[in-house]
Amino acid sequence: MTSCTAALPSPGSSAPLGASVSEGGVNFSLYARRATAVELCLFARVDDAVPSQRLRLDPDRHRTGDYWHCRLEGIGPGQPYGWSVEGPRLPQLGLRFDPANLLLDPHGLALAMPPGYGRAPGRSSSGDWGTAMKSVVADPHAYDWEGDRPLHRPSRETVIYELHVRGFTAHPSADLPPEQAGTYRGLISKIPYLQDLGITAVELLPVFAFDPLAAPAGLLNYWGYQPVSFFAPHPGYACSTDPLAVIDEFRDLVKALHRAGIEVILDVVFNHTAEGDAEGPAFCFRGLADGDYYLQNGDGTYIDVTGCGNTFNANHPVVRRLIRESLRHWVQHLHVDGFRFDLASVLDRDQTGRPTPLSPVLWDIDTDPVLAGTKLIAEAWDAAGLYQVGSFVGDNWQEWNGRFRDDVRRFIKGDGGLAASVGQRLMGSPDIYGHKQREAEASVNFITCHDGFTLADLVSYNAKHNGANGEGNRDGSDDNASWNCGIEGDTSDAEVLALRARQSRNLLTMLLLAVGTPMLAMGDELGRSQQGNNNAYAQDNPISWLDWSLLGRNADLHRFVRELLAYRQRRDVVINARNLSLGELVRRHHVRWHGVEPDQPDWSESSRSFATTITSVDHRFRWHAMVNAWWEPLRFRLPAAEGDQPSWRRWIDTSRPSPEDIVPWISAPSLEADTYTLGPRSIVVLVVGLSSAAAAGDGHPDPPAAGPDQPRTTPPDPPA
């Protein structure tokens, strides 16, 4: 790293914020509106307890309005630094200055976490900064991208795979050199696996630098939803300890994924920080402008709509700029393709914590020209009950569809009254999104994610088992819509295991055939279990890691998912030059709804089955899906195939053993009968190709009405 031999500072400039490298030196600029004195602290090494230089800024020369700034000659990238800021300590007025806290640069591009990192420097007034995090000067342009750029793949081609950078390769079964296990570089080694599976986008759990000690005593924060920087990649996921090499390792990962045709979506946390509640440490924002960066009541207490002790004041002008510049940095300098916004509804709250119909920060993001074409995905709810699925502000946002997850989970496990709702979910949720002139992929469909049960646990546990978290099993949701198939947890019962496998295939079939953008959670295609833990945020151990030996043990499930994704990537399925909105797609699809008799769907409370026949928009193929969530067999009468072939071909039957549960379309066996008996709790999908004449014609007949007003055929009543 560059040695600390800086001359006395010149005034420099208030813009841009952060540490900006130019020929011969670095310009520093910091927002600290109510500060009375500011010192720039330079360190020779990241683990030094005291600065090699403390440069006290002159408010007459180094302050412009609310910004403190200076330029130093003779330093450059690799220089560790931090800020010491003085001012009144009046928490009731949103002022919590303490010059004994070494503060990170809110706009710092790199971050160093000393080997002995601890939270004590952010809590005490000892002034010992040896274990404190430090910002590091970085040049965002110092990298050879070799022509790489964000991919901008259409959403209609997108299959998202949510994964944790460390958890994906930390397990010994990943068979990596120890220094690469659980790192950006380790993930590069598994790109061929993602390609082969059929993934087109990875959604990385937080890679913004976060506080690993924000966890119960004796545990580490694993998920990463405790950010300390919105610009710096997390150093704990790098092979190197050099803060600048961390940035390059992340960029190497992005470049390698792009070469494989895989986009990079980041799970970003702009709703709270690791500083927590009033008893938490001061790493950065709290010690600079507490009342500007956090939502507060009139008495200075924190408004908490995140469940994490504080709420970022996203619609304050300074915070809006920070968020926008952070997103631009990750797109322009690190080439990411999109963002999934954690608790995005928080960003729709004004500076009093109330929802606002025209959130400035959300419209900033929605209309930013640098972010045009970037995927924007909202988790459209927050911890205080604001739920905006289907009504999130903006024109370019996709949404995690929590209704899809809940309705499909409950229907597949056998709950009544959901047949009509699940029909809507399969068609892209037009009841939620049909009013918007948006593409059919506005709904990001998912069954599981990092938060909650894995797919394997969803069919193996009735209740959470979070004892390892050290919170007396009080943490995590109690509402999981899960079913253990008769036995809680691990079992050797062959009948129960077969039912669990079938239920897993049912859920995956619903997910990967539905209109919308599908998202798989890491390892669900391999039957990964967390032993019933539905809140493994602090489990940086095999509970959370992906065990790669499952690829051999659960090869049948992996093959099933691979075949479904191969179907999704068929060019005649995903290509749609007209870019139809969801409403138009639903109108132009020839969709017929059925019960056990053609054209007689049963949407009653007792119904646990339905069928649908769908003709592709371009009239190239037709498929007929039958869903039986009841616990007895049901016989369905089939509509006429009306294709090139005289009969339907069986593509999927989740009740059949592998490899008959799903077969390649080209080898799907023909059916001669005009009825099909579905096994208990099973899904069958039949296919037929249509004539070239039909494909070449206009081919957009209006679909017949489908809904509760049609004649009904009710399956037998369930047992009491």
Arrangement of strands in the largest sheet: 12-13-14-15-16-17-18-19
**Rg (C-alpha, Å):** 27 Å
* Strand element count: 26
Distance between the termini: 73 Å
Shape: elongated
β-strand percent reads 15-25%
**Helical content band:** 10-25%
**How many DSSP helices?**
17
Spans where pLDDT lies below 50 across 5 or more residues: 1-6, 692-720
Structural category is alpha/beta
Mean pLDDT: 91
What does the model show?
This protein has 17 helices and 26 strands. Helix content is 21%, strand content 17%. It is α/β, with parallel strands linked by helices and 720 residues long. An 8-stranded parallel beta barrel has the order 12-13-14-15-16-17-18-19. The chain has a 5-stranded antiparallel β-sheet with strand order 4-3-7-11-10. It has a 5-stranded antiparallel β-sheet with strand order 20-21-22-26-24, with helices on one face. Strand 8 and strand 9 form a beta hairpin. The termini are far apart. The protein is elongated, with a radius of gyration of 27 Å.
Quick recap:
The protein is α/β, with parallel strands linked by helices and 720 residues long.
